[in-house]
Structures are given as structure tokens and as C-alpha cells.
Design goal:
Layout: H1 19-46, H2 51-61, H3 64-75, H4 80-102, H5 111-119, H6 123-130, H7 138-165, H8 168-173, H9 176-192, H10 195-210, H11 213-216, H12 221-239
Helix pairs in contact: 1-3, 1-7, 1-9, 2-7, 3-4, 4-6, 4-12, 9-10, 10-12
């Protein structure tokens, strides 16, 4: 019987620092990102955003929920303050992921490397890297991040080009792809943790409430996103708190 690869008792597992293995781990993530980011490209094209600006957003952000919310602020004529607060609220989890993943980085990963590592952290890349039994090195992380990054940027490009070439009637119909992108973001998390579905439902209900004429006249689209997100998250943090035993190691 083949002997399983595991660290002897009392010793730490060897650090994972193979670019090839990281690349292979990142391929499924990149394929998923490509299909999902097409919706973002179409959304921007339908709303008249320049092709170069659309692709540049995906190349400098790499955050699906943040980009969707940011696009809403842009197309709704929101302010820079609204944009900054929206991104802070939605992307705050990446700061926690960065802190957690920094404990798994090998000592050879220098401070300058950690800066660009933090840029490439997404939910899926974090999950794959954090699931490794030992520490992860720079070459592995480059491998696991390169395909998702290219998939996200190229998918955005494909969606933006398609959206610009489609007839106006088809462009309007393709707006439903935006909701497909939301489904792709929410469903996996909701399957793993049911209260996530409740948070999404409550946030949707609150966003509908914001469109009541009196409230809609006093709350901009940017701040409505912030209020709905914070209120829904706070409500379920109280109703369904995550127990310490449920927190991934």
C-alpha cells in the first residue's frame, strides 16, 4: 500500500511552493471567473462605459461584488465618498483574509511580495491557499493567482466587446445577465452557510424599501447600497452569529 504523504508527528508539513501545482489549482477558479465576468463587461457596455475603462476596472480591482456595486454608483451618478464607503463595506472581508493568509506565507515571502499577494486575494484564491496543510510560498501563490486574474480580465473584455456589438434590443435583454452574476456570487456561499441567503434576501427587501418615493428622494443609490449591506449584515450577525466551532481553521 502506498504510503500517504504527511508530515511526521510533531513536525510541520513542508511548504508548498510549486508554480505548476498552484497553476493547476487556479485553472478551475479562472474558468469560473471568465464566465462570471462576462456579465460585468456586458453591464458596462450597455451603460455606455468605454471598453478600455471597463477592462481597466477588472484589471485593477478583482472583486465581483465590489465592481458590481461600484458600477451601480457610477451609473447612478454617485459621489467619490459614496464609492469609497461602498467599497470599504463590501470588500472589508479581504482585509481579514489577508491577515489570516499572512500566517500561512512562508518566511521567504518578503514584505514587498505580501503587498501584491494582498491584491490577488479573492474568496476562492484564499480558500484554496488556506486549505493547504503547510505554508505556501511565492511561486505557488503566483501560480494559483495568474489564471483567475487573466480569466476575470479576459471575461470582462469578452463581455464588453459582445455588449458593444449587439443590437440595442439584445443589449437591453442581456441586462438579465447581471442577475445571473449575483446568483453566481450568492448561491455557493448560501449553500455552505444558510444565513447568507437570509442576508441576501433582507438586503434585497431593504433595497426595494429604499425606492419608496419619500426615501428615494433623500437617499442616493450609493448610500442605499451601504445602508442595505450594513443593516442586513448587522441583523444576521445578531440573529445567526457564527459560532467559534464553525469558523474555518
Amino acid at each position: 500500500m502506498a504510503q500517504q504523504e504527511q508530515a511526521p508527528e510533531g513536525r510541520r508539513p513542508a511548504a508548498e511552493n510549486s508554480f505548476r501545482r498552484g497553476f493547476l489549482d487556479g485553472v478551475p477558479i479562472g474558468l469560473g471567473y471568465f464566465s462570471v465576468s462576462i456579465a460585468f463587461g456586458i453591464l458596462c457596455a450597455v451603460n455606455g462605459m468605454d471598453l478600455r475603462a471597463t477592462v481597466l476596472i477588472s484589471m485593477t480591482n478583482l472583486t465581483s461584488a465590489g465592481q458590481l456595486a461600484g458600477a451601480g454608483v457610477i451609473f447612478g451618478g454617485g459621489t467619490l465618498l459614496e464609492m469609497a464607503l461602498t467599497q470599504l463595506v463590501i470588500n472589508l472581508r479581504y482585509a481579514l483574509m489577508s491577515i489570516s493568509l499572512s500566517q500561512k506565507l512562508h518566511k521567504s515571502v518578503r514584505f514587498a511580495d505580501r503587498l501584491w499577494v494582498s491584491f490577488f486575494i479573492t474568496d476562492e484564491i484564499f480558500a484554496v491557499s488556506a486549505s493547504k496543510p503547510g505554508e505556501v510560498g511565492r511561486r505557488y501563490f503566483i501560480g494559483v493567482a495568474v489564471v483567475p486574474y487573466l480569466g476575470w480580465a479576459l471575461g470582462t473584455l469578452a463581455g464588453a466587446v459582445a455588449g458593444a456589438l449587439l443590437p440595442q434590443s439584445v443589449q437591453s435583454a442581456m441586462g438579465v445577465a447581471l442577475y445571473g452574476m449575483f446568483v453566481a456570487i450568492v448561491v455557493p456561499a448560501a449553500k455552505a452557510h444558510r444565513p447568507v441567503l437570509g442576508v441576501a434576501a433582507l438586503a434585497a427587501a431593504l433595497s426595494c424599501l429604499v425606492y419608496v418615493p419619500f426615501l428615494h428622494a433623500h437617499i442616493s443609490s450609493g448610500f442605499s447600497i451601504i445602508l442595505c449591506t450594513v443593516c442586513a449584515a448587522m441583523a444576521f450577525a445578531w440573529l445567526a452569529p457564527v459560532k467559534e466551532t464553525e469558523v474555518p481553521a
